[in-house]
């Protein structure tokens, strides 16, 4: 009996702690459900916010002021001149073509057989005029319009960019010091400027980098004696071939004119300066873009030496002055006030994208500091070529859009090449290019200073020979795949003097 009473008391005691008021349990369950739903909605909202942020970043104000009633151009040829901020322009073309899924005219290596004149058979996938349509062409070449016209459609928009020959020579000296004999022999740029004839031999390979480089890139005889008749004839030929000539020193204004000429959105021409050069000074290190004039001591110039370089590059100096005047005539037709407004908008967009995309406040950094080895810029010459680091934590869409803006030229070309030619299938047999004479390729008969009326091509030349060189001076030679003699399987092989061995260029 006693045992039954104790058991009953225990059941009553436990009952006191088993349950509370029913409303309390219901409230607790509701609270838990709300917390779980809030957490779930938060995850969905964050993902949506990232997508909206990417859309806003690259769409809000990205179209820019109205372009009126025009149709975007999809056939574009850019003559990529040397040391003129042309790598930045090429990045713009790469981005637009990739976004629109356009077909690029790409070289077998990284240049179209430069410094030999352009030949249509240098284009990967080219099988004859009008067999395949190409939309964008922009890698380095020595211009040869008749051959370019075999590749590009008749409605192609041709444009290029120039730079003050003194600043161009400074940059060329820094970049090509090791490959141009005229530069290599000189103690410094000032030493070269004082007496360029002492170091310059027109017969030596790569010395074209040391004199009238713009004139050379346009396919003209850069060693011709200066005359008013010659320069006027060259200027007229360039004006007939190109619809727009940009000026590196006025890059933002150039981008506004280009965007309107091509009828492209504003964000298409917003860019970060690629191939910026590091400059060392007593106070530390800094950086300058290609249009900047500050130079390290080995490249410092006096005013007298600058004038001597203008005289040495007289053909380029004439081109620069002539097209600088016509550039500002074009700005006047566009409207100075209108131009100022669009430049402000372009720079604002650049600053916004730089803050969103880049570390270090948008400033370029040394290649060794870039964690992603796939976006480190190629190094050459006396100064370090800088690149960019992406901001951490970017969502995938934003990261890809930012990555396109900073991807170096070589890596971008490789990416486009791999997408356009996913498999290296043997190409159909094609007619071989014309034979290359020893004194220079595809030279016309007659005096080297004469141009065919209204036509741009290669005039004169040095001892270029038949050996092909890629953009960085590496040798290009024919190599048979699968160790057979079938010409269909030939590819170009790069040789960097044994430092990196050989590999097939696809």
UniProtKB/TrEMBL annotation:
Alphabetically ordered keywords of this record: Glycoprotein, Golgi apparatus, Membrane, Signal-anchor, Transferase, Transmembrane, Transmembrane helix
Protein name: Galactose-3-O-sulfotransferase 4
Membrane topology: Single-pass type II membrane protein
UniProt cross-references to Pfam families, sorted A to Z: Gal-3-0_sulfotr
CC annotations in GO: Golgi membrane
Similarity comment: family membership: Belongs to the galactose-3-O-sulfotransferase family.
Any one GO molecular-function label of the UniProt entry: galactosylceramide sulfotransferase activity
Regions of compositional bias (Low complexity) in chain numbering: 480-489
């Amino acid at each position: 009996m006693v045992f039954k009473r104790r058991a009953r008391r225990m059941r009553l005691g436990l009952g006191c702690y088993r349950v509370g008021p029913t409303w309390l349990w219901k409230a607790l369950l509701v609270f838990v459900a709300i917390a779980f739903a809030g957490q779930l909605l938060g995850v969905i909202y964050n993902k949506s916010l990232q997508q909206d942020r990417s859309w806003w970043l690259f769409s809000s104000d990205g179209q820019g002021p109205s372009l009126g009633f025009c149709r975007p151009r999809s056939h574009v040829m850019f003559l990529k001149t040397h040391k003129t901020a042309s790598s930045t322009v090429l990045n713009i073309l790469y981005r637009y073509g990739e976004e629109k899924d356009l077909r690029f005219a790409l070289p077998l290596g990284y240049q179209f057989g430069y410094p030999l004149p352009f030949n249509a058979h240098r284009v990967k996938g080219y099988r004859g005029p009008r067999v395949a349509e190409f939309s964008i062409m922009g890698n380095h070449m020595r211009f040869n319009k008749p051959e370019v016209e075999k590749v590009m459609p008749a409605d192609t928009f041709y444009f290029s960019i120039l730079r003050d020959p003194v600043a161009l020579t400074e940059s060329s000296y820094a970049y090509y010091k090791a490959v141009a004999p005229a530069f290599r022999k000189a103690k410094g740029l000032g030493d070269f400027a004082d007496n360029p004839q002492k170091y310059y031999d027109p017969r030596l390979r790569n010395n074209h980098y040391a004199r009238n480089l713009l004139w050379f890139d346009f396919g003209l005889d850069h060693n011709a004696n200066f005359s008013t008749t010659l320069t006027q004839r060259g200027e007229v030929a360039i004006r007939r071939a190109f619809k727009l000539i940009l000026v590196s020193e006025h890059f933002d204004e150039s981008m506004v004119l280009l965007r309107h000429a091509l009828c492209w959105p504003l964000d298409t021409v917003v860019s970060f300066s690629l191939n910026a050069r590091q400059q060392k000074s007593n106070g530390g290190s800094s950086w300058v873009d290609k249009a900047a004039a500050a130079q390290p001591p080995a490249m410092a110039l006096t005013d007298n030496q600058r004038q001597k370089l203008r005289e040495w590059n007289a053909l380029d100096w004439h081109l620069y002055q002539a097209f600088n005047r016509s550039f500002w005539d074009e700005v006047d037709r566009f409207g100075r006030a209108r131009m100022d407004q669009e430049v402000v908008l372009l720079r604002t967009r650049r600053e916004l994208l730089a803050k969103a995309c880049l570390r270090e406040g948008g400033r370029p950094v040394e290649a060794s500091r870039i964690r992603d080895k796939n976006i480190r810029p190629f190094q050459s010459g006396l100064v370090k070529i800088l690149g960019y680091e992406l901001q951490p934590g970017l969502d995938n869409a934003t990261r890809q859009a930012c990555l396109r803006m900073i991807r170096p030229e070589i890596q971008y070309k490789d990416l486009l090449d791999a997408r356009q030619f996913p498999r290296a299938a043997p190409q159909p047999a094609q007619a071989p290019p014309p034979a290359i004479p020893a004194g220079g390729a595809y030279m016309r008969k007659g005096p080297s200073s004469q141009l065919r009326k209204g036509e741009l091509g290669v005039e004169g030349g040095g001892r270029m020979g038949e050996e092909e060189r890629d953009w960085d001076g590496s040798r290009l030679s024919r190599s048979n795949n699968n160790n057979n003699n079938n010409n269909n399987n030939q590819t170009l092989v790069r040789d960097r003097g044994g430092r990196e061995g050989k590999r097939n260029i696809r």
